[in-house]
Amino acid sequence: MVFYVTGVGFPLPAELAARARDIMAGRVEPVPARDAATVVILREGPEVYLLRRTSTMAFAAGAYVFPGGSVDARDADQAVAWAGPSPAEWGAIFHAGERVARALVCAAVRETFEESGVLLAGPGPDSVVGDTTGDDWEADRLALIDRSLSFADFLARRGLVLRSDLLKPWAHWITPEIEHRRYDTRFFAAVLPEGQRTRDVGGEADQVAWKRPAEALALAEQGEIFLMPPTHHTLDELAGHDGLDSILAERREIVPIMPRAVETDGRMRLVIS
């Protein structure tokens, strides 16, 4: 995994430079990108919820990220009770088929609950659950993580409806072709529901924090924290807003962004063009 910046580019280490040349020459096929979803949880300030991935993770170890993860095959289950924009509407926004769009939205809500305890669902289309920090909620969260409980069954057992209207489409990032692990990730934004609390849930993260976007960027600039480029870019966008209303009102055009390797004067660099 490498860090890359817009325009200037990042010099690739020898191994990845060689892999980039092999891919460009057709000698090596890029790894397929797995569908994934990421959710920027917001609260007034505005502040964002960040997790630091453990140093043992195979991807983005030690990076501060938003909650999210890969789509589970069961996320496309049509049995999931649904309120808000339909999978077809989300598919039009993210340029995806209806089945993939359904899975992406379900993955976004499921992963957010797994990694923060925040649940974007309620007993009906106009309601949302309150505090989710009890032992029974924790048992369900752990069952979702170990995949012994499907998201559809979790919602059905509790009589809950997924609230897709609580999600705002934000961006679409694809891991560069030169990487050994690749993700096709749709970014969403969501406001922390009233009455709910985030918590340090452990697992893939060893620290969590609420930060103002500008504060997180300053810490990254000082080398205090490490941010992946999509996270850095998103925080930079959010830093231009003075409150939640401004963020939620922003009109977003969702265009795929995939950094690419280029060779200049014999040096391979990764750039966002």
TrEMBL record:
Its cofactor is Mn(2+); Mg(2+). Signal peptide: none annotated. Keywords: Hydrolase, Magnesium, Manganese, Metal-binding. GO terms for molecular function: hydrolase activity, acting on acid anhydrides, in phosphorus-containing anhydrides; metal ion binding. The keyword Manganese applies. Residues 32-233 form the Nudix hydrolase domain. The keyword Magnesium applies. This is Nudix hydrolase domain-containing protein. It comes from Nonomuraea jiangxiensis. The lineage of its organism: Bacteria, Bacillati, Actinomycetota, Actinomycetes, Streptosporangiales.
